[in-house]
Amino acid sequence: MLKGTPFKSIAFHISFSSFLVPALILAVAASCSGDRPAGAKVFSATRILEQRKMKDDAFSDAKRSPLSSVEIARFHGLHYYEPNADYAVRAVLKRSEELDTLTMQTTTSELRQVVRIGVFEFLLGGKRHRLTAFAYIEARNNYELFVPFKDATNGIDTYEVGRYMNIEPLEDDSAYLIDFNEAYNPFCAYNEVYSCPLIPVENVLSTAIAAGEKKWK
């Protein structure tokens, strides 16, 4: 994100469309059932590969790419783990009783104001994990859930600062699919002129998430 401009998710992650919801919704999350809720999102390797192809196309376009002209000239695609259904997990969103505002530090001197919407709870690798979902103040009436995270792959296979996910809000808080195959790098991974939120400590996972986008270099 260019310095001085509002943060926005990468536009060509087309699978995440904006979803209009009333401001400051306070709902009690439904308990998770063993069955997949009707209409819930499902893992699709084909969809993931199509998303990646569209992103590569955008990175090849000088008008949309965060890469320099020299890098675009030699660009042959971003790096990813192979799609893996084991990293697409069912989750329940436990909504915050009060939508408190907090400030996120960034890779530059900019600060980001966000609202803590709630916490996703899910099982991965036989262990229970939690990730907090946020929304940006300026977009909370028409938003995607912003879920930044770090894991044990950072600095080895993946970008050291961490990765992001954008998740469409659902009416049923027990119907979520967290698909780590869709985890992506912020633009600051490709160009230091962009300002990107740092991962809050509550979203640092102790496990390795071998899914989604790998580091650029």
Describe the structure concisely for a colleague.
With 217 residues, this protein is mostly beta strands. It has 2 helices and 9 strands, in the order βααββββββββ.
Secondary structure: helix percent: under 10%
Give the helices and strands as they follow along the chain. EHHEEEEEEEE
Number of helices: 2
Structural class: mainly beta
Spatial extent as radius of gyration: 17 Å
Shape, principal axes of CA atoms = globular
Count of strand segments: 9
Please state the average pLDDT score. Answer: 83
Strand content: 25-35%
For the record, give the distance between the C-alpha atoms at the N and C termini, rounded to a whole number: 19 Å
Low-confidence stretches: 1-39
Major sheet attributes: 5 strands, antiparallel
User: Please, how many domains?
Assistant: 1
Task: Pick out its properties.
217 residues; mainly beta; five-stranded antiparallel beta sheet; two-stranded antiparallel sheet; 25% strand; globular; disordered N terminus
How would you describe this structure to a colleague?
There is one protein chain. The chain is mainly beta and 217 residues long. The chain has one domain. It has helices spanning 45-59, 69-73; strands at residues 19-20, 88-95, 101-105, 111-124, 127-136, 142-143, 145-149, 163-167, 176-179. The longest helix is centred in the first third of the chain and has 15 residues, at 45-59.
List the helices and strands and how they pair.
Blueprint: E1 19-20, H1 45-59, H2 69-73, E2 88-95, E3 101-105, E4 111-124, E5 127-136, E6 142-143, E7 145-149, E8 163-167, E9 176-179
Antiparallel strand pairs: 1-6, 2-4, 2-9, 3-4, 4-5, 7-8
